[in-house]
Design a protein that fits this description.
single chain; 465 residues; mainly beta; Methylamine Dehydrogenase, Chain H; four-stranded antiparallel sheet; 1% helix; 49% strand; globular
Length: 465
């Protein structure tokens, strides 16, 4: 039976001089035997609705089942907007919107242009609101962090501010009149898409993990609208490089995407002493707009990028493997996802804890594709299908729903967000070979509104007790 919280109720408390919001628990057990099971850890996502944003905590049991859910207000606005973007109903995409740093959790508030800092109790997963800090730009969507070599419990934090997701829709024969967002002037020659905006940037912060203080430092770079604002920011495994994937300009709902403009993947050298970047280089390819998911290989300077809004001749580029040699970024391989020829809209990437598997989730077709990764960062297909092995979410899931993934540290369980229409969390078990099998899907109780785009869940992370 469908059970949702009828309202999110919060009581105000004071923490270190800052007004915080402690939840009055109205939780529902997702599993009728939850109280008899051992809590092994916790998962977190954010609703990113049209009102005040909320971070949701899920109890995770040792057998992978999900127990109680608890909602925490961020005190800042989510970024959903069902009236924006025509048929897209305000959808926008990113990866890495929530990060756990020591005993703190950081979450973006895409509509409030802030980053929320919570204290995190490692014993019971409880969150305590500490502060909201300006993101340094407009529409923050992704967070990356790196320990400082010079100071214990201090980190560099980089926030990707997307600003907007300009796109074009329809315009071909029998497709309806062309629609341009945010407006036609933006897409015209000499229009807004050619401008570099200060608010469309990557912004550097210093974070003190002892106190939870997030301090703005500097804008590291800003971007032209032609190639879009940041979707994901991520540090390389050794911390010497910072990568940024961007949105580009997508052209949806047409067989002739004449207004599409390529997304980019930027790589910078990162100075861990000063926090500054240098040596900017990027990769772009005509026919690919919307490079969303970005994951570094665990051993090399290879990057795994998921791409959507592909032209007909680039359908086998849902996943691209890039290599950075310090001077340039080059493509070394490309693959289809799902059935390969489908318009499945691959958007998110996840590398397994041991680095041997790469998973790509597809927003359009609601599938998760599996690839092998070797010790040199090379990617290869799994199984005998045309492109790769993949699994589907629950039968009947509406197209355009699947987003972020999280895999447990032991590699045995994966969780996937139904972020845009079903407002659910799906659990997959992971076999020793890395294959996925769907076990159960649960509803997110705090998502009380219905309809595409009422929420646009951002980020999925967690930890073991």
């Amino acid at each position: 039976m469908k059970t949702r919280l009828t309202a999110a109720i919060f009581g105000a408390v004071t923490f270190a001089g800052v007004t915080a919001f402690a939840p009055i628990q109205q939780t529902v057990d997702a599993d009728p035997y939850a109280s008899a099971k051992r809590v092994a850890g916790y998962l977190y996502t954010s609703l990113n609705g049209e009102g005040t944003n909320q971070v949701i905590r899920f109890e995770r049991h040792s057998d992978g089942t999900i127990g109680r859910q608890t909602a925490y207000s961020t005190g800042s606005m989510g970024g959903a907007n069902r009236s924006a973007g025509g048929d897209a109903a305000g959808d926008f995409d990113s990866q890495g919107a929530i990060q756990i740093i020591g005993d703190h959790l950081l979450a973006v508030n895409a509509g409030g242009n802030t980053i929320s800092v919570f204290g995190l109790d490692r014993n019971d997963g409880t969150l305590t609101k500490k502060d909201n800090v300006s993101s340094g730009g407009a529409r923050p969507v992704s967070i990356a962090y790196l320990p400082k070599a010079s100071a214990r419990d201090e980190y560099w934090v980089v926030v990707g501010n997307q600003w907007n997701n300009p796109n074009v829709q329809k315009g071909g024969t029998n497709e309806g009149p062309i629609e341009m967002y945010p407006n036609a002037a933006f897409h015209a020659d000499g229009g807004g898409h050619e401008q570099v905006l200060d608010e469309r940037n990557i912004f550097l912060f210093s974070f003190d993990a002892r106190t939870g203080t997030l301090t703005p430092v500097d804008c590291l770079d800003s971007y032209p609208g032609t190639n879009g604002g940041p979707a994901t920011v991520a540090f390389s495994a050794d911390g010497t490089k910072l990568a940024v994937s961007t949105w580009g300009i997508a052209h949806f709902g047409t067989a002739t995407p004449t207004h599409q403009k390529a997304s980019r993947v930027y790589v910078y050298d990162f100075d861990g002493g000063t926090g500054q970047v240098s040596g900017a280089r990027f990769y772009e390819e005509e026919g690919i707009a919307g490079s969303i998911g970005l994951s570094w290989d665990t051993n090399t300077s290879n990057l795994f990028i998921s791409n959507f809004n592909l032209t007909e001749n680039k359908r086998d580029h849902s996943l691209t493997v890039l290599a950075d040699n310090g001077r340039s970024v080059q493509k070394v391989a490309n693959f289809g996802t799902g059935d390969g020829a489908d318009i499945d809209e691959a958007c998110w990437t996840l590398v397994s804890p041991d680095g041997s598997k790469l998973y790509v989730s597809s927003f359009g077709s609601n599938v998760i594709s599996e690839f092998n990764v070797d010790k040199r960062g090379g990617v290869s297909k799994v199984g005998q299908r045309a492109e790769t092995d993949y699994v589907s979410r629950k039968a009947g899931t509406p197209p355009g729903d699947t987003k972020d993934m999280f895999i447990t540290a032991d590699g045995q369980h994966m969780y996937v967000l139904g972020a845009y229409q079903t407002f659910t969390l799906s659990r997959f078990d992971v076999s020793p070979s890395g294959a996925l099998s769907l076990v159960k899907e649960i509803e997110v109780d705090a998502a009380t509104e219905e309809g595409p785009g009422a929420y646009n869940f951002l980020g999925l992370t967690g930890f073991d007790k």
